[in-house]
Amino acid sequence: MAHPDNPTVDRCLSEIKNGSMDSLAVLYDITSKPLYALTYSYFKNREDAEDALSDTYLKIVREIGHFQGQNGFNWIYTICKNICLNLLKRKKRESAVDLSDEKTVNLLDAKDSAETVIEDESGIIAHAKRHLKTHEFEIVMLHAVGGFLFKDIAKLHGKLEATVRWQYHNAIKKLQKLIGEVIL
Amino acid sequence: MKSERDVEAMLKAASFTPKDSLKTEILKKAQSVSAAPVPKPKRAFLTVKQLSALAACLLLVGILLFGGIRYEDYGSVCLDVNPSVELLLNRFGTVHTVICHNDDAQTLFSELALSGKSIETALPMLLDTLNTAGYLHDGAEVCLTAVSNHTGKAEKLLEKLSNEAEKHAAEKGYRVSFSTQILTKEEREYLKEIGVSPAKYRLIHSILSLDSSYTFDELKNLSMKDLRALWKELSKKESQKS
Predict the structure, then answer these.
(1) Is the CB of B211 inside 8 Å of chain A's CB atoms?
(2) CATH class assigned to A1-97
(3) Based on the domain organization, do B110 and B156 belong to the same domain?
(4) Could you give the ipTM of this predicted complex?
């Protein structure tokens, strides 16, 4: 999947600024996958990730007056990330852990069963979520699933591109090893 | 065992999108959301008391910065040709330890008194020694790596060092080119763990930028000669495209 190029996103945002809701639909089509990858990397469950995604687009409409006309994708990425962080803080304050309300997608559990095969493509993400560190899971979601380029992830996170690449490769190696330990 | 590429392919192919109805829900809610007015920025007027306090702060910051510049903590500087040597710097930018990473470097540099010298003095000494030993020939590339978690300072150091290295090489007639990179301390430790020199890491990174179908593990097992040949081939293809 190609990373949504900024000129297309900028055009959509400018049209939304002029009141076009059709452009919001187009914006959703081209940006929802990478943004969903980002929200999922934070919440690790579909429901909260979708809530955060929904809040992101509504905030874009509310704050469209602040859009400067360029670097649109970076702008909406920042909105999305801040929404995720604020929601996470709120959830920490509000909730006690309720295991009966566990929302985690859990198709496979390699810990409980040594004879589980990861072939279902959704299972690989659940596996990554369970076994990778938070920053590794985020980079894997952004690059492999969301299609973000390493240099963009590096810029957005204030890291060197080489560092992001190294962390990504480390994470993939971990997954490779973990998948290799699952018996057919 | 599945390869790294297989794992990446599984991730990329994962059917991973929000629920189908989400788009409709968002567009419906958006109809009733109105854009917030953008507030005009207020002009700030400082009182005399505030201005005096600000001036005092700026003066203090200036003193601290000026003092601080003399006490920079860079980490280390690596120099790779084939001999691979690492100079650990103290906070004054002076060499306090020299680490030779291979036998060639041990042979060449063990007798060189670099400790206590500034990095700006040590670097030309290293280059002269390399030249005498015949390493700085036509087409030789010297890789300078700054290892530091302070990116801004590392960039400035690297710029200064590469300028001085090029100037020294030009004065002495050494036919050599210089490449530079910055690594964090964490990355440097990782490279030491897996036995890859900073120069090799830089070359691998350059190849991956041109062709991401390779993996780091595949490339790290190639020799520097093979990596350079691969990089030349990919660069040629890239320049033909443009």
Answers:
(1) no
(2) mainly alpha
(3) yes
(4) 0.73
**Burial state string for B155-176 with b = 16 or more CB within 10 A and e = fewer than 16:** eebbeebbebbeebbeeeebeb
The tens place of each residue's pLDDT in chain B, 242 residues long, gives 677 788 888 888 876 788 889 999 998 888 887 666 666 666 556 666 666 556 655 655 555 444 444 434 457 878 777 778 888 887 777 888 888 877 888 888 878 888 888 888 888 888 888 888 888 877 678 888 888 877 777 888 888 888 888 888 888 888 888 888 888 887 888 888 888 888 888 888 888 888 878 888 888 888 888 888 898 888 888 787 76
Instruction: Please give the Cα distance from A41 to B207 (Å, whole number).
Output: 29
Residue span of the structural domain in which B214 resides? 196-242
Same domain, B108 and B207: no
Q: Would the CB atoms of A33 and B184 count as touching at under 8 Å?
A: no
Helix (H, G, I), strand (E, B) or coil at B179: strand
Q: What is the CATH number of domain A105-184?
A: 1.10.10.10
Q: Does B238 contact A at CB distance below 8 Å?
A: no
The whole-angstrom distance between A130's CA and the closest CA on chain B is: 15
What is the count of residue pairs from A and B with beta carbons less than 8 Å apart? 120
B162 and B221 in a single domain? The answer is no
Q: Do residues B143 and B87 share a domain?
A: yes
Asked whether residue B109 is assigned to any structural domain, the reply reads yes
From B206, B80, B209, select the one nearest B141 (Cα to Cα).
B80
B170's CB contacts (< 8 A; 6+ apart) are none
**Which value, in Å, is the radius of gyration of the alpha carbons in chain B?**
26
